[in-house]
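Repro:
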Amino acid sequence: MDRQFRALLVDWGGVLTVPLSSAVQAWADSDGIELAHYVAIMRDWFGEAVGNEAETNPVHALERGEIEVPHFEERLAHELSRRSGTTVVADGLVERMFAFFDLLPDMPALVRRARLAGIKTALLSNSWGLAYPRDGWDDMFDAVVISGEVGMRKPEPRIYRHAAAAVGLDVTECVFVDDLQVNIKAAVELGMVGILYRDYDVAAIELEALFGVPLR
């Protein structure tokens, strides 16, 4: 018996928006920050966590809602200032960064068409704060799962199960689209079908084949 897929779960940044790399580069240029310094900090923070993860990896803690945005901004601004030798303003740092994650039209329109076709749809996003541009979400999603609101983050298995349950389905009935391989790998290991997002046209063709309905 052929496997039937009934839900489409999508990431936010890099799938429904401009790519992560271009958004972060635009923020760095606007703030006068050397991108290499930011990348080095992320590499250090995403190394093997030991002890108190809120201290060893503030990103993970922020995404789960374990620390507040101002605390994270202070940590990141301190590190950027230390490495660059110039003062980076902490207040509003995350907001300035995410101002460059412009929503693109193609994938949001595809998600809406999928929902109109009877496919359950959900957002599954790791959050740096909760200031998402939520206009139009009622028409786009049956469920919204944002890491900072649910206290878990990708690629933790429990957040994928939570998202599937939010649309009333099993993980094996879900297709998940994300721009990070680590998040796709975790979803696939649970039984979802994962699509690593790089290009709208390619993703749309794959989704049409999986769901058996026109989505472009």
